[in-house]
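Q: What structure does this chain adopt?
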Amino acid sequence: MNRLLLLTLLLVACGQKPMKQLPATTTNEEVVVQDTIAVSDIHRTDSLWHSFKKYKRPYVEGYIINKDYVIYQEKDTRKIIKPDMASFAILNVSGSAADIILIFAKDKNGIYYQGDFIKIDTTGFRVVGVISHHDKPSDYWEEPIWRTYKQAFRGTKPIAISDPATFESVTTCYFKDKNYLYYYDQKVEGADVATLQKELADEEFVSDKDNTYYQGKPFIYKGERVQQVSNNIYKTATHVLRYNAEYDKERAEDYFIELPDYFDIPTLRRLNDFYLIDKNHLYYDENSYPLGDEDLRVPIPKENLSKIKLFEVLVTDGNKLYNRKEPLSGYDAATFGVVPGHYYYLYDKNGVYNWRKKLPFHYTNRPEYGKNFFYMDNQRLFIYEDQAYYSGYDDSLYVPHLSPQQLVLLKEGNTPLRELFPSQDDKQKNKEIDTTGFEQLTYSFWRHNGQIYHLIYKEWYDSDQHDWKSERRYVVVKGYDNASLRVVPNGFLADKDYWYDGTTRLFPSKDVELLAIYEGYEKGWGMDPAPSPNFYLFKNAQGYWLAELSGEGAMCPLTNEQVRQLTDEPMS
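A:
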């Protein structure tokens, strides 16, 4: 949580846009405008130093940006670096590597990794994966694999990749470029990267058109090479195997069970994530672990296999409809279809259904998706002929007739049905303040017509209505010098007179530096999920300050000797 908090502060400081509209509200969101709140002074107490010194905490991991220099800190390490300040920026990392986002930065000359400088062209920077301490022996608990267009690295160590510009992850263990497959940073000999089945890869197992690899080596089962057929089904020349999601096995074959001999192996192939077929049978694999029923056959006659149509977990042969391996009655199999991406929204010649529930349209013609029947996913909106039906958790609306103009507007997918036909509650709920021309300082603070607004956002799950709700409160803040208020590095605010942590006034704003950030105390012996407040060590023209920033917070002045004890550096 501390790492995420520091990340938030840094991103706010480094990614501002001068003019932006306040965030828009949704139909499940309430807008409340309060009058004012006042800036308050932080509580000052000498006891803060005594408690902090007794239980000194590790540094919060990340970069601290000051006017002329940057500090990188983590655990018990603190480094002062002198990058090109005009071009210095924290590098954005996303996906599975997001946990190590705070260790990378750049300037015009190269990359900074945990505060250490690597001179390199930064174009194409990307973290492609992380080697975990649990996965592979490593000098670090988590060690990133990253690249630019010129070179790939494991931590600070260059690794031999044939084409860094195309280097990307396949699984947490496997990576590839345009030429080769790699197990972590080692080339997998013989792998055909052009036919790699990336979408079917599973951690230690990955396949190309001819072979499956386990821990970077070919997987051989009873003397035969193994080919992957679907998510969990593999085959050799004489056996069909099913992956059973066991863990920590010593051998590759221990992860699989051998299925009965009812397959025609040469013609066995994948149809989608659930179904496979050979010349004799259609098969359904539940994707559950461990496998409960080893008979995967769907009871469709062999002569109807050429007629089958798949709809995710549903399938029809034109005569019957099946849900997985069981017949499903109540629908016309010959005209059956589903809304793409939503197999529970069904239709046939008799109507449109939300699974078993028939939607309340007046049916005159056979529904045909994309012709006279449409579904707007982000609006939960069905359109049939000139009728519309919206269904939410706690609200529904059927409109028996739409004008041509309304039909065009709704089919664009950006207009809620309730916007055209609002309820009385909606009319009250959607009253908003005019945010035209608001200047964004941070996500939470805005300036307009000489006033500073504080945006307070909260959301919660309404168990009665089975839906998420949210509220935005726009509060006018009094006590800043509004004209000079600005964002300063590390997510704080400052005006011509003072520095602020949100609406808390800290100290005069002349010559301020942030020297260190320390982890806060764990609440409830680590069992309390609430974030712990961090401790901040500041310097300004008046001296040194230790601050605990949470709520109203607390702060105390420090002597040079006290600061030396915290940073192990001589203080001027």
